[in-house]
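Hi all, long-time lurker, first post. I run a small reading group and we've been trying to get comfortable going from sequence to structure in the token notation. Rather than ask abstract questions, I figured I'd post a concrete chain and ask someone more experienced to write out its structure so we can walk through it together at our next meeting. Sequence below, copied exactly:
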Amino acid sequence: MSQKMCIFASAMEQNNESKMGIGGLLRRLLPFVLPYRWLLVATLALTFVGSLMAQVNAVVLDRAVDRINALLHLDGGFQWGVAARILITISIILLGKEVLAALITFGQRVFGEKIRINVSRDLSLRVVDRILQFRMAFFSQDGNEPGKLQTRIDRGIMSLSNTVKNFFIDILPLFTSAVLALVLMYAANVYVGLVATAIIPVYFWITAVQGRRMKGWRHRVFGTHQQLSHGILNIIESMGVIKSFNRERVEADKQAALQEQSTDQQLQTRRISFLYEGLKTFVEQIGTVLIIILTAYLVLTDYPGMSIGKIMYHVLLFSNVSAPIRQLHRIYDDLNDALVYAEGFFGILDAEQEVEESGKYHPERVEGRFELCNVEFTYPNGTHAIRDLSMTIEPGKTTALVGLSGAGKSTIVNLLDKFYSPDSGSITLDGVPLGEWDTEALREQIGLVLQKNHIFSGTIEENIRYGRPGATHEEVLEAARKAYIYDQVMALPDGFNSNALQLSGGQQQRIAIARMFLKNPPIIFLDEPTASLDAIATEQIKNSIDAIKQGRTVIVISHNIGQIIDSDALYVLDTGHCVQSGTPTEVYRQGGLYKEIFDASARSMNVDKIADTLT
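-- Answer (accepted) --
Happy to help. Here is the structure in token form:
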């Protein structure tokens, strides 16, 4: 196991020990169960009746054995009429009991399963609502990668809903049946009841030791499952790169190593579990033997109230006591698994510090003047992206951010859109600190086009309308025309009802630009908006963007000289610092980094040959 894996498992184990036990788990689940209290009451009522039904066999067998024994020793000889009545009575009672028990079990399971399904739905809705409130920093933290986060959520919901099933559908019937069986044993004979009771704490002690022994292994298995899920997701997302470099074997070997580690951990977990289960079965059998010996001894010594029927009576009642105990190790294992997964799941719900902060400021009109003063920012992974940065974005003008990769250009856009908050320094919009702005209101004023934009599963029209959900069909079509995607969409068999995920990268980029046109905001952030487009499409989009830029605050990030040379202002960044600023012409004449970037870009485009060709 890698050092990182060990650290993760250790941290999870410490959190589990300090924050949550089985009692704490049930308390956390209670608010999700209480809305269905009437289903719960019905389930508990059926549980009690079902537990009474479970004792019928023992009572009937007790009476039947004694009646048959008496019949065999009648002075007048064996009487078939009396025997027939006994058999008919036993048959009617036992068959009627089975029919009634089946109906009760059916109702109990239906009600219990309805509680489980509803709780599962509520847990899912709660966690989705929660993660939608989180700031972007949460998703860039170690351990919150998409695959791992999905594993935490999926396994958390599954294990918690199973806990509801275990507790309300399995444990309560078993516990109630065991208690009633013990009461009947004590009522028949105190000594037999004491022997049966003495077995229970030994069984529970072994189960508790088993739980403590297996706790660490469960955390390791959970951590490895997270790595496996994340690894498979990473393979799917990187399939093009993997195949282009012929690295299928490398990735398969990585997964094989993880699978081998997971297999070893699961086998070790099961070996430990089987060892303790065998020990508990042995203790249970000792209890059964002691019950038989003690009851037989009391019958042989003519102890008051003891008869031959009581031997079977006590054996069956002890079976009703031990059967629930036999099931407890499985349920206890499930509960301990749930503790591992619940820790991660409720950790998401409890992450108050991760909730995106929002102010109250919500003006009717936005000018679009951003001011950054001595801003410092470090990503959660430790990357120091912005260092003592000060700049002003003038309203109604186009400002270009230029720099080498990793200079902090996209980070500035993330800060201005409140995806992240600066570590120190201040950022204001129209003179008001960004933290005081209502986050939803702020983002309604901003149109964002990234180098790689997400396309949702759905139709092309649905993806464009994401920019403004209330837009009409005609408005969607007009936005598509402005993004120069209309003709290509109409050429598809299903037109705007086609699946957007089937579009090429360049076409998907135009869909993202169409969203921005549909939103029509006063502030626009363009982060390599034409990176995936061909030259003709780039020119078309540039013309559309030039038209929409009029009178708006625009920040553009691009390595394309043509998109930054006509900006009103330009800031040159180097490792998070602003090293040059001014108009594109002024900054070029200063020399320095911008001139190096500009000249290198011109050379890479073979500007001299292009000029000769044009001439």
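A couple of things your group might point at:
The chain is about 65% helix and 10% strand.
The first helix runs from residue 3 to 19.
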